[in-house]
Q: What sequence folds into this?
């Protein structure tokens, strides 16, 4: 089989910090900017004699995410200990979920390369994060550890190996992040390490003599912390697998080599071998005896299910159907839940959903970007914007004046109607008044007037501009245009 | 009768009536420790100055009417695997925690302090509570007050010996497979393992989390009841502690249980049981018959041989995990001589842990390893459920189950240290109760010809502590084993 026929088969494990105020098993605050080891207590330090107490909010958020991914919430989930020795893990075991996670069997719909596709979700489970080990440079042969992060609630979402390209991996990663943020499950700030990726990659070689598909060895890449790095690392591995397979088609197979763990060097954009199959850890999982199993109350699960907002993908499709928006607009507006809510409230108060989309995507977005704030930081209600848009649609003010009024609304907090009234910004459609202005403009600009008479369409724009200026922007440009046309070509 | 011969109940009553002060009771306890502990070695640390200060505070608050605690002014000893933030170390009798001072109090320690108790010291144990003789202590071996050449049992040997030698009226121990009941039997005192979940484990340094349970030692049933009253109850910091209401144990203590059906399992009277122990236990059963109880032959087929095997898989598996944290990184002992991080881990643990702890970590690590988990841990978990089922079936027919606490009386120091399997069999009658998570108590029921105490074990269903205490008290009223004084207290021995 030629290398071009090898199909990449990719699954993803994604870790997300949950948006809880406190850690998973103790009352310590989850903080990202606190001085090292200032958000710790005997419990998260793993001192002798301490016991974990499950953070109920973390469980609720995990169930929320699992439900949004269409997972089943089993009747019983249990906690397990996963053992490995590392100085950032004070107990030398991590409390996680091994064989009975709290969510199983869902999917996430993604759009990549112009197609939509369902990526299966194998499982969703809750576990604790470890601390951070740091190696001070030039300070001798030692390391220091910050345990502020130890015990931070971590949600792990494991996908089926349903992705076939780096593009799909990126689409899946961004969709998962968008969903978590939408649901309020996590903040997923990449810079703070609130979201981390571990892709599993192998290439499908074809079918073996037994009729089952054959694969190149599975590579797991550890701890990628940006969309860019996960996409590039996957692309790198696909290329590397192709080369390895072409060099040794008989030897480079999963049966022979199993699974290996690789790391990613971000600035060189290469992966390197960390562990081969022989060095695989034995985590000695066993049920955590300090915690009681999680037996979800069905009514509670139903309540969470009922409280789920409309999910981004469904909302995007509804915006296209209900408001007749272009795909692009619907995608932009639904990327952020607050923006989508704002849009929808305004759109329902106007006759023109596309106009509202333009306003939100242009004027509102510009302000959010300039001020570096989210929708909550915008001193403007969707009702106020809708009123402004209605004034433009009714011809009371023109679009340019609209932007001017918009800025004044933000600055003063006054309504569009009040600003237009107070400043006399309503545009003039009074034919008599406009006729006088047009005649004066023609008299003052004989050149362009002649040009337009002679067939130069462009000259009309210049004349209208002059007329607008003469009216201090209040003239209704459509009426002005009609008068010019009548007078010069009529 | 001198002050240190008073029971906890009498000490408390005398203090309440103003006939005795907390300071006097504390002085009597400290003096007894001074006099006796050089021989018995029950304590790993004592805090005379803090205890005196604490006693004065209790007296002051009693006088001011600010205190009505259950244990106001009563001296108490605490096994050194429970965290105390009073500046005393919490060592678990292990070199790996030598000098480690807990930054927080265990739930039971908080309870003791809230009830006005005066903690006089921390008692010796087998390292990390792993053992049946207290010889596995990383620091010293405790002696049996009835015969200083014999072991006090274990792992709570220090607490049992401290109570038996009248250095304190009551003490806390912890029981994982018999670590309260077995030393209670060997030292001739009352010791109770409450139902799993009855007492919070928060601050008890874990050996085997699904089995560990804190309980009281006293010379009398009433003292054990008093101490249990102070520590029992739900604690949100321990997810396995049960929000079951705590009855007033002392209120019903003198009410005999009638009718009383006693299950006598044939498996508890089989091979390996010492003749003198059997005779004392049978005589005790006779006393109950005379009191109108009916003896019923029952069978607990999984509760001896299988229980020992199951116990040593479950307990060592959990121990291998719980003890992973002692690695020299964050606290406790760290080997000073190491090449790199892995070497530091290995040397720290090799130098810091004793042989028995290492043995159990290895057994547990093996049992949890990939490829062996199903054959060992998983199968043990299934047998554990059968043992629990056994007891549930039996408790449908009888109120309590009785038998010997241990197969033999106390044995000489060094007798079993070279043979771990023989040592493990000391727990043959006590482990099934731990695996079933039910309640059990050991009370004195006589002596061997050599003058060594024998214990009667009484087991009850979950949350049957009140019933067990009443049944134990019925027998205690008919006998005077608690009035016997070990030779070491009389300057002999």
A:
């Amino acid at each position: 089989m030629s290398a071009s026929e090898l199909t990449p088969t990719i699954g993803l494990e994604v870790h997300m910090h949950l948006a809880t105020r406190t850690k998973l098993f103790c009352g310590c605050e989850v903080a990202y900017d606190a001085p090292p080891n200032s958000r710790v207590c005997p419990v998260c330090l793993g001192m002798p004699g301490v016991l974990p107490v499950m953070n109920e909010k973390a469980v609720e958020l995990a169930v929320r995410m699992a439900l949004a991914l269409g997972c089943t919430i089993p009747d019983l989930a249990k906690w397990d200990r996963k053992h490995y020795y590392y100085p950032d893990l004070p107990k030398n075991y991590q409390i996680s979920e091994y064989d009975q996670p709290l969510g199983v069997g869902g999917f996430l719909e993604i759009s990549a390369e112009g197609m939509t596709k369902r990526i299966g979700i194998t499982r969703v489970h809750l576990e604790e994060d470890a601390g951070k080990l740091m190696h001070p440079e030039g300070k001798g042969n030692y390391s220091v550890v910050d345990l502020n992060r130890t015990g931070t609630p971590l949600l792990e979402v494991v996908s089926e190996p349903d992705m076939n390209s780096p593009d799909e991996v990126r689409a899946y990663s961004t969709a998962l992040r968008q969903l978590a943020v939408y649901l309020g499950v996590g903040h997923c700030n990449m810079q703070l390490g609130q979201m981390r990726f571990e892709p599993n990659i192998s290439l499908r070689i074809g079918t073996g003599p037994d009729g089952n598909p054959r694969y190149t060895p599975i590579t797991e890449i550890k701890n990628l912390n940006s969309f860019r790095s996960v996409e590039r690392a996957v692309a790198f591995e696909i290329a590397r697998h192709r080369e390895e397979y072409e060099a040794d088609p008989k030897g480079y197979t999963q049966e022979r080599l199993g699974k290996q763990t690789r790391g990613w060097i971000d600035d060189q954009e290469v992966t390197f071998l960390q562990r081969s199959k022989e060095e695989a850890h034995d985590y000695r999982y066993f049920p955590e005896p300090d915690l009681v199993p999680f037996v979800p109350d069905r009514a509670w699960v139903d309540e969470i299910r009922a409280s789920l907002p409309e999910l981004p993908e469904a909302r995007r499709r509804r915006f296209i159907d209900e408001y007749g928006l272009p795909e692009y607009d619907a995608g932009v507006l639904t990327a952020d839940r607050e923006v989508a809510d704002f849009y929808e409230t305004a759109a329902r108060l106007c006759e023109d959903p596309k106009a509202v989309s333009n306003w939100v995507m242009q004027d509102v977005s510009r302000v959010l970007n300039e001020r570096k704030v989210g929708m909550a930081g915008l001193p403007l209600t969707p009702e106020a914007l809708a009123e402004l848009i209605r004034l433009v649609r009714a011809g009371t003010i023109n679009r340019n004046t609209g932007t001017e009024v918009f800025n004044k609304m933000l600055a003063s907090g006054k309504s569009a109607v009040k600003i237009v009234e107070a400043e006399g910004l309503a545009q003039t459609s009074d034919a008599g008044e406009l006729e006088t202005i047009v005649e004066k403009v023609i008299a003052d600009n004989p050149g362009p007037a002649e040009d337009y008479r002679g067939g130069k369409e462009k000259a009309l724009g210049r004349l209208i501009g002059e007329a607008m200026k003469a009216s201090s922007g209040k003239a209704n440009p459509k009426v002005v245009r009609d008068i010019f046309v009548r007078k010069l070509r009529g | 009768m001198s002050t240190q011969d008073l029971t906890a109940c009498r000490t408390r009553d005398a203090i309440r009536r103003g006939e005795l002060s907390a300071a006097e009771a504390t002085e009597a306890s400290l003096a007894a420790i001074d006099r006796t502990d050089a021989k018995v070695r029950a304590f790993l640390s004592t805090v005379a100055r803090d205890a005196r200060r604490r006693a004065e505070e209790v007296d002051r608050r009693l006088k001011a009417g600010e205190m009505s605690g259950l244990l106001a002014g009563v001296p108490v000893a605490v096994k050194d695997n429970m965290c105390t933030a009073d500046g005393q170390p919490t060592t678990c009798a292990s070199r790996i925690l030598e000098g480690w001072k807990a930054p927080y109090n265990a739930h039971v320690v908080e309870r003791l302090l809230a009830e006005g108790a005066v903690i006089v010291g921390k008692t010796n144990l087998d390292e990390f509570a792993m053992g049946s003789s207290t010889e596995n202590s990383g620091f010293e071996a405790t002696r049996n007050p009835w015969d200083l050449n014999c072991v006090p049992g274990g792992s709570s040997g220090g607490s049992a010996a401290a109570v038996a030698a009248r250095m304190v009226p009551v003490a806390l121990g912890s029981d994982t497979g018999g670590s309260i009941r077995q030393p209670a039997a060997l030292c001739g005192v009352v010791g109770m393992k409450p139902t799993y979940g009855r007492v919070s484990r928060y601050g008890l340094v874990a050996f085997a989390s699904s089995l560990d349970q804190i309980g009281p030692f006293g010379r009398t049933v009433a003292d054990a009841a008093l101490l249990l009253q102070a520590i029992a109850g739900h604690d949100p910091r321990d997810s396995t502690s049960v929000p079951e209401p705590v009855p007033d144990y002392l209120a019903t203590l003198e009410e005999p249980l009638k009718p009383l059906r006693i299950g006598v399992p044939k498996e508890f009277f089989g091979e390996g049981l010492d003749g003198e122990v059997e005779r004392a236990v049978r005589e005790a059963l006779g006393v109950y018959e005379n009191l109108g109880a009916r003896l019923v032959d029952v069978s607990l087929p999984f509760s001896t041989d299988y229980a020992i095997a199951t116990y040593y898989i479950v307990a060592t598996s959990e121990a291998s995990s719980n003890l992973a944290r002692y690695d020299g990184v964050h606290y406790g002992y760290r080997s000073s001589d190491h090449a790199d991080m892995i070497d530091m881990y290995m040397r720290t643990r090799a130098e810091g842990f004793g042989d028995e702890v290492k043995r159990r970590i290895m057994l547990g690590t093996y049992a949890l390893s990939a490829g062996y988990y199903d054959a060992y841990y998983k199968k043990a978990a299934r047998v554990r459920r059968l043992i629990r089922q056994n007891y549930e079936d039996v408790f449908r027919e009888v109120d309590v189950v009785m038998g010997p606490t241990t197969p033999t009386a106390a044995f000489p120091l060094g007798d079993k240290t070279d043979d771990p399997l023989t040592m493990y069999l000391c727990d043959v009658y006590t482990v099934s109760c731990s695996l079933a998570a039910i309640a059990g108590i050991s009370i004195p029921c006589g002596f061997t010809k050599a003058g060594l105490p024998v214990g009667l074990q009484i087991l009850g269903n979950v949350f049957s502590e009140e019933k067990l205490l009443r049944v134990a008290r019925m027998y205690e009223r008919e006998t005077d084993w608690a009035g016997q004084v070990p030779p070491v207290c009389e300057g002999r021995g």
The first strand of chain B starts at residue 43 and ends at 46. The radius of gyration of chain B is 21 Å.
